């Protein structure tokens, strides 16, 4: 037992050893021919060996690498991107990156580097991106880390343990597109530390407490264009006045993200913003206002620069004590020159009329994802409200009536663009009132089932996508752009209703096809997006789409989004690549040809039947079939004649002058049935033949060359011989007027040929002396 356990342990150790050894081998990477190597999440313990100059990009993030040695990357002289983030690196030797003179992107974030060394970066003169976030260092090295990185454009530094920013930290950096500093627990800031950077396009600063924020702000006034403050509690924020020589600022945008503000700290923020000398944008994203709106805005003379606020953006603003909130009259003085306001997802249900009237310069207002309804909107858009407003966005609110919405907005004389998408409107009324200058209307995702004259005639852009529309028949003489995707339209709209149309997006409907004539009818159309429909790939449609050279200039999503839905054997194929067989493409011609051939065949058959008495032959066949169905053992029938005589018309002299005379004038006389004399007039001849045979005791066949050649005699035999012979009796009497060869008898009369081969028949003698014996034998045969 112990031996078995020992064996299992040894095998496990060997397997583990080989797994660990394999982790550092080049086959743990996947590299493409361009030199981009991916080694993410491979449980690597070290940088793989064997890396060469062919490697251009190396991603080893999310592994367990703890050490970077001088020789690990020595041969990667052409490396441009190195990602070592989310590892366990705690040591980097001084010359580890010495050979990486072409490196432009270096990510060392979220490792265990507690000390940073400037020797790592002194050879990285081409570096543009450096990420050192998430490492547990307290300061940015003993000496300036970045003095050799003259091409650096994006820098990310800091950690919750990062406590001190020194003046030498950013020495040598003159311009950064983005600087992100995680200074959540910053305890010391040396003045002018950030001022050494002459220009920072975007500064992201994480600070929990705002104690050092005024000093940092002073250094950024003349160097940063965009300041973003994250995860900060401004409850105790106080801002002192700035010396006059610091009032020439570059800042154009402030963003407060995940920041807590009180009424008092808001007043301090107003003081801070007052030192922005030019027009600027202010953004509050995911912030909390712990106050009642009791703002104490300084006198207008003291906040003269705040009037330069041009754009205000508020997203996801929380006001826990909103039910105790004051009115907003204290901030009216700050809004006079604001041109753009965006308030999204902040539970806004009303903009007070007095505030709307103070927003005299407002041109753009976005109140998306709020709680606006028609009744409160009427108060917000009161008389003289928003006099300069051109664009109003009320997307995803609680509007339900198009008629009331349009009537409410009549006070907005300069309104040209209105977005009321993602509201749940009732059925569209027949007529509506809208501001006179309306050019753009967005009614997408509003559950519309049909369109009426409620849509304003002045529109140049109409978006009604993602509804339940089955048709589009509005006449919009000025419309230039129509967005009607994700509906249920089966055909393109009528071009005569849209004479000025330039752009149409009608993808993901139920359109089966469109033609060159339809596209040409839109005389000014420049752009069409019609992919994602259920195209029937008919021969006509394929011929048009595959031969039209200019189609890809109009169809912006051609050919990727144009797929066949039917026929089933080409479903899912791109329209441009689909080919149909000749029979499918010329089906009409093929059917026409078959029909013509059948018609000619029927016509030819009719002519032949007429020429060769085909109808008569068919009637004969029908009679023959009827006769065939009669029972072989016929019931006892009435005998009216001693014999029925079947003969050729050319042998009528012999029959009428000799046969009839000898038999009917004999004593006792024989009663014969002759077709000339005894057939019932008007009765079908075949019925006459059959009835005569059945009513006769015997049937005399007068055989001769004339009989064999006669068509009539052939069919007479055809319809009668089976009755005579199939009943196994001797009812047939064969009289041979002249010698005939048996092979001259038709093959189908096999019974007759058999009888002539096996039984005797009467031969008419030419010698008169023997004729008396012939008549004697014939009379005896009839009586038998």
Structural account:
By secondary structure, the protein is an alpha/beta fold. 25% of the residues lie in helices and 17% in strands. It has 19 helices and 35 strands. The chain has a 22-stranded mixed beta sheet, with no helix packed on it. Strands 32-31-33-34-35 form a five-stranded parallel beta sheet, with helices on both faces. A two-stranded parallel sheet has the order 4-6. Helix 12 runs parallel beside helix 17 (711-726). It is elongated and about 165 Å long. It starts with a helix and ends with a helix. Pfam families: LRR_8, LRRCT, TIR.
Provide key terms for this protein.
784 residues, alpha/beta, 22-stranded mixed sheet, 5-stranded parallel sheet, 35 strands, 25% helix, elongated, transmembrane helix, Leu-rich_rpt_typical-subtyp, receptor, repeat
